[in-house]
Amino acid sequence: MTDTLPNLIAGEWQLGGGDGTVLSDPVTGEALVRVSSQGLDLDHAFDHARGPARMALLELGYAQRAALLGEVAKVLQSHRDDYYEIALRNSGTVRADSAVDIEGAIFTLSAYARSGTSLDGDAVLATGQALPDGAVDSLSRDASFGVRHLLTPTPGVALFINAFNFPAWGLWEKAAPALLSGVPVIVKPATGTAWLTQRMVADVVAAGVLPRGALSIVCGSAEGLLDRIEAFDVVSFTGSAQTATRLRTHPAFVVRGARLNVEADSLNSAILAADVKADDSACAQFVAEIVREMTVKSGQKCTAIRRAFVPAPLLAPVADALRAALAGVRCGDPRDTSVTMGSLVSRAQWQAAHEGLEMLAGETERLVDGRRAALIGIDPERAACMAPSLLLCPDPEQARRVHDLEVFGPVATLAPYEVGSASAATDRASSLARLPEARAVAYARRGGGSLVASVYGSDETRLAHLAAALASTHGRVHVVSPSVAKTQTGHGNVMPQAMHGGPGRAGGGEELGGLRALNFYHRRSAVQGPAATLAALAVAPEPLR
Ligand code: NAP
Known about the structure:
Elements lengths: L2 E2 L2 E3 L2 E3 L6 E4 L6 E5 L6 H18 L2 H17 L1 H12 L3 H22 L14 E8 L6 E9 L4 E4 L7 H13 L3 E4 L5 H13 L8 E3 L16 E5 L2 H8 L2 H4 L4 E5 L5 E4 L8 H15 L11 E5 L3 H12 L20 H14 L4 E4 L20 E4 L18 E7 L20 H8 L4 E7 L3 H12 L2 E7 L18 E2 L10 E2 L9 E9 H9 L6
Parallel strand pairs: 1-5, 8-9, 8-11, 9-10, 11-12, 13-14, 13-18, 14-17, 16-17, 18-19
Antiparallel strand pairs: 2-3, 4-5, 6-7, 7-22, 15-16, 20-21
Helix pairs in contact: 2-4, 2-5, 3-4, 3-6, 4-5, 9-10
């Protein structure tokens, strides 16, 4: 019999009813733990979070809440080994890949703990519970009457519905700005990997760091959660575009008007600049980054490079270099220390990734065929291990699926682009059309809006033009040149200082970006009034609630 993980509701641990869902080891198939959210008192969970838990958070100021985040990070640090063990067993990841999630979570919390301390003194409006948004603007000739904008924490709860691939970071990158804002959190992790999220919440709650009920967790089905969402609550969803489409039409958003942030799938690109030669170090950086993005977490990263565009004359040498580098990847049981890339998260994901490869077959050929690679220490009938496959799309102009289908695994497509001005299909009149990489930019845009595109070259001024051309359709543009070989943070790594999210198909959401993340958890209001009132907003001595 496997243990059932309790849910944390209104500060109390509760077991869900029914059979629940059993979480398993994606390499061995071993049953690990069971989760269920059936029969939980969700009304009580939301009422408690919006009421006493929120008030307890607001009793503290921004800087004090920032200090709490620092304490949370310390608690997580002290239990690291447990988290690596859970990630190994439930996500099938090698240690370095588990670190992306676990250390990424701690790093992000620590970053908000640091930057949150700046929200003190003049940075906070008089009530202690609002942030200024710009200065006072006069609305009268004699300046007696004016307007000041302020940001106040939304008087509701933040619900996170998360994806399976980042059970640690996915919680804390959102919880850090929410809690810093004074907004309580209810998290529903993806069922398949809920164990790590649940353990982290359990450790933080056991340490007594946060006010009771400020952090709740529901493991298992999301049923009933959105029905409880009210006008001032906020919901952050990370997952597939398909589920996002269903969520967007829920009455919580279309009737009650709650705020929804969506982070969905993305056909991210990497572009090698047109002036790069095969033996330039920028070319080597491009190759190394594609390999890294295909293999870190077995390609199960929303930011991973899915499409790589090279100037047509460089297609052959780049393909050779990628083939050689991918030959060094050892895929299999992450318990084997010679293994460099572990498993996909489940056999269902393994199946979906293989089906995705088949769907791309009409437009691509296999440069590296993962089906032929040896898998180390696993039962191929049972394990969700999948070696990397590199595809070649010879005609990205005509291709459709390559720009539309996200294979969520160790799969990327290499495609050549003709150097020179763009086709009539792109905006001929703009400076984009004059870029030598115009066709590559046009291909990147066919992803319909992506989280990130990276560009590689040695002429840093030229790269600025390329970055500007990509910006309007990408949430982040990552520029790599030989001068930053040792300092660049990686195409797929999401840094807390940089915005994460993307337009269009990527969901249209925005997360992180330093203190910009607090916007989602605050409401912007304009206060119009006498100059003295507007001044008092900034200087009133006593906290007003
Ligand atoms: P998913 O199937 O859409 O599930 C995401 C979350 O939604 C899970 O917690 C799931 O719960 C929940 N869910 C499913 N149906 C629901 C419904 N009808 N109402 C409310 N919640 C519902 O996505 P996934 O397979 O876990 O994640 C992989 C996808 O996420 C990839 O496409 C990837 O690109 C994307 N992703 C994006 C980002 C980003 O930041 N943009 C980050 C990571 C992943 P259950 O698990 O219980 O079904």
